Amino acid sequence: MARYIGNKLFYTLVSLFVLISATFFLMKAIPGDPFTSEKKIPDEIRQRLYEQYGLDKPVSVQYVKYLGNIARGDFGVSMKRLNQDVSHIIGQTFSASLKLGIVAIIFSVIVGVLLGMLAALYHRKFLDTAAMVVAVLGIAVPSFVVASVLQYFLSYKWGLLPVSGFKTPLHYVLPVFALSAQPIAFIARLTRSSMLEVLHADYIKTAKAKGLSWFAILSRHVLRNGILPVVTYMGPMTANIVTGSVVIEQIFGIGGIGKQFVEAIGVRDYPIIMGITIFYGILLMLARLITDIAYVFIDPRIKLSNGKEG
User: Fold this and answer.
1) The predicted structure's pLDDT at residue 304
2) Is 213 exposed, middle or buried (0-12, 13-18, 19+ CB in 10 A)?
3) 56-112 pLDDT tens trace
């Protein structure tokens, strides 16, 4: 187990290094810089700004320095906001994004698994058809379209829920639902197909023959084995929700990390763009690592040999 976790951690660190390098060089490949668009800045002051932020140095020197700063947990200082560390900006705004993401993940798993279970238990009946229609719509319609439709009907037209903001529990409803629509659809389809396979397995027939109650069979065998694909999907789902929250936060006026990211792109604030990208990458890689480890504990059929899955 220790070697398995060590291997996963090693590959996670390699992936993080690739992400940091790719983000840095992509930012440098974009024409211009944060100060080029400011035509009112005199050339002398612009040159001093280049020196202050190290933009006058060769790209290779900037790269090595940036790697050293990242290794110390320093994402740099904003080039557009006076004396504001990127780490401080992320720390101040991430709480709203974290709350939104956690609620959306929990809501997605609960609703998606319930829909998938109902579809599997009532296979080829009305509930199955209804659940799959919901799943197809959730996959086909982008989250920003869902958000706009919800805002129009539930806020503007009917006045049932707040149109924007993030202050009360009611403010959570629309952004959480918009973020969760696609994950719910995927989880419902995964759960349905997996549970249909489990329900027709020989050990389920054996459990019925032993006289176990239907509730015991569902909880001990069907749900536990049918939920495994959902656990595998947790990593990509976290990625979808985290990256999707950037757009959703803008639509609903949530002052989270996504809003900072969009604003930084507009003014080419390199440190904030790179800092948030790397921060997101760390979160997603950790989610994937935790998912891989959790899968081993949930599925006893997986054997570990020499740090590899077998």
Assistant:
1) 52
2) exposed
3) 899 999 999 999 999 898 898 898 887 789 998 988 888 888 889 899 999 999 999
Residues in the chain: 310
Q: Which residues contact 109 (CB under 8 A, 6 or more apart)?
A: 187, 230, 234
DSSP state of 77: B
Q: Give the type of residue at 116.
A: G
Residues 6+ apart with CB under 8 A from 182: 138, 139, 143, 240, 244
d(C-alpha 39, C-alpha 225), whole Å: 62
Predicted TM-score (pTM) above 0.90? no
Choose the weakest-confidence range: 84-98, 212-226, 243-257, 258-272: 212-226
φ, ψ of residue 152 to 5 degrees: the values are -65, -50
Mark out the alpha helices in 122-164 (DSSP H runs): 126-140, 143-150
- Strand, helix or coil for residue 6: helix
pLDDT digit string, tens, across residues 144-176: 899 999 999 999 999 999 988 888 899 999 999
Residues 146, 147, 150, 151, CA torsion sign: negative
Q: 3-state DSSP call for residue 166?
A: coil
Give dist(CA 272, CA 52) in Å, integer.
17
Share of the chain above pLDDT 70, in %: 93
Give the number of C-alpha atoms closer than 13 A to the C-alpha of residue 47, restricted to the C-beta side: 3
Structure tokens at 258: 């996504």
Which tokens hold the place of 221?
Answer: 């065998």
Amino acid at position 160, single letter: L
Contact (CB, 8 A) for 289 and 126: no
Contact 34, 77 (CB under 8 A): no
